[in-house]
Amino acid sequence: MLPRVGAEGLPDLGESAQAEISPAAERRVGESFMREMRWRDPAYLDDPEIEDYLNLIGGKLVAASPDVRQAFDFFAVRDNTLNAFAWPGGFIGVHSGLILAARSESEVASVLAHEISHVTQRHIVRMVSKQGQNALVALAGLVVAILASRGNSQVGEAAVVAAQAAAVQSQINYTRDFEREADRVGLQTLEAAGYDARAMASFFERLQQSGRLYENDAPAYLRTHPLTTERISDVENRVRSLPYRQVPDSLDFQLVRAKLRSQRGTPDEAVAEARDRQRDKAVDPGVAHFGLARALARAKDYPGAERELAEARRAGLATPMLETLAGEIRAAQADAAGAIKLVGEARKRYPLNRALLYQQIELLLGNGRAPEALDIIGRELAVRTQDPQLYKLQARGLAAVGRQSAQHRALGELYALQGNLIAAVEQLQIAQKAGDGDFYEQSAIDARLREFKTRQAEEAKQQRAGS
Question: What ranges do the domains of the chain cover?
Answer without folding.
Answer: 7-240
